[in-house]
């Protein structure tokens, strides 16, 4: 764990965690896993967790997202299906279908609309009350990563394409970029103010990119998740703090760091955990930071073993760890 005081989540998935997200309404954490399940945990004020409910896909569940009102959870998986849980009734229904694995899913701010990104090289939009997609967009390659904040949606695909969408006109790619990083995209995460996004790759680098050309002078990339022996580790997740707009990176080296993009500083490095950190999430006010330690599949199935750790921890975020710093004088 990052800190001896961190809480361990009770009854974690027995296989690797693929994604996590907190509800924007209460301290409920949704977790998708390679064991085909999506689980919901309630985090109590004491830091203790209670498993509340779970539902299944027919193959590994790879992504999860909450509705804005906190009443629904949606998820996608290798069964090519998008599913929705009604938290009040505990009933799950299928709401989306692709021709290949659904790697990414996002409940959008626009009413009942859910976006799904798939290895079939499409993004599809679904009204959760209708079985047919309300829009489909052809991507240049397989979808590997996706995030949305306000009107901005960013999709990272194979071959380093990054497609930017303005959700006011969702069926047209607003901008098609090549990733500023040299290697395969692992994660994209939108800024809290929707003005840009961070992209992380398998080579232990993060790129900070603004959408508008007038802000392009603020674009930069930096190295992280590398060690003194020059070993390079994948950046598995990037999470933005909902209040301060600073962010975390988590890597296959088992470390997490907090960063401030505006002053280009690392705010806090955490000590190494005994496993790879595969997914992270801040709760709605940024007071809790969840991180999942499990195998990240970056070295293939041969290194997946029953002895691999599968744990989720909750870290109580202190303001001094995550608040932006005054930029250094140059």
UniProtKB/TrEMBL annotation:
Annotated spans, Disordered: 1-20
Residues in coiled coil: none
Keyword Repeat annotated: yes
UniProt entry keywords in alphabetical sequence: Repeat, WD repeat
PROSITE patterns: WD_REPEATS_2 (PS50082), WD_REPEATS_REGION (PS50294)
Family: Belongs to the WD repeat rae1 family.
Protein name, per record: Poly(A)+ RNA export protein
Source species of the chain: Mucor plumbeus
